[in-house]
Amino acid sequence: VRVTSGKVYDVAVDVRPGSETFGKWVGVELDSEKKQMFYIPAGFAHGFLVLSDSATFTYKCTDVYDPSGEGGIPWNDPTIAVDWPKLDIEYKTSEKDGKHTSFKDQSFEWAEKWL
Fold first, then answer.
1. Are the C-beta atoms of 26 and 11 separated by less than 8 Å?
2. Residues pairing with 29 in the sheet
3. Cα dihedral 91→8→12→68 (10° resolution)
4. How confident is the model at residue 110 (pLDDT cuts 50, 70, 90)?
5. Which of 13, 4, 15 has the alpha carbon at shortest distance from 106?
6. Of 40, 43, 42, which is closest to residue 27 (Cα–Cα)?
7. Closest CA to 46 of 59, 34, 33, 56
8. Which CATH architecture has domain 2-106?
9. Of 7, 11, 84, 87, which cross-links 31 as Cys (Cβ 3.0–4.6 Å)?
């Protein structure tokens, strides 16, 4: 992942059942000025918080996009407990992202192949 304009806090969560780091997360601040990239391996969930007025990303994916492979975890899931930056704004999510079930209520069987 690379931010080509703007600034974001980017997070990856290991969702591979059986992994030593299952349920653990790592976060990094990305911005277009530093031009850094963030590698998110297959079997990890990806989320972000835009820290600027807007942001644009570039992704390199493992395979061709397939909407049936989409899923998600609520941004504020207590099991994962991502330490998101505290901003003096109202956090907004898309309608689609607002429908995700909790981490503990998902099996993530699809990610086992990435162990």
1. yes
2. 9
3. 70
4. confident
5. 15
6. 40
7. 59
8. Sandwich (2.60)
9. 7
